[in-house]
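Lab manual, section 2.4: Encoding a predicted structure.

Procedure: take the sequence of the chain (110 residues), apply the prediction step described in section 2.3, and record the output as structure tokens. A sample record is shown.
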Amino acid sequence: MLILFFDFQIAEYQEDKIPSSLNVNFDSELLLLLREVNYLAAPPFNIHLTEPVRMLLRNTDVNLLRSTATYLETIVSRYNDILQNIQDTEWPLFEIKIDRIKKVCSQRSF
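Recorded output:
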């Protein structure tokens, strides 16, 4: 089973109480590498792969990994867009949810 950690980073509150943006730390080259290794193991190349690599390929759904990474990037992008465009009068409407997001990100339980 492949376990990936998506590293969300959130800065501390600034003076105006608006936190900085979130970032998804996911290297898209991982998807390319997994695809290339899969191609090299198949005909006509038939390159011998070690058992850990074969097990990794069997247990990794590259399409699911790609769609999950894209989904997380979309969520983070929308969140950052809200933070950048929020008006002072709108802040009380979002403050509780933003605090909840910050709490979840600080737990690193995802």
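Check your result against the sample. The first strand starts at residue 7 and ends at 9.
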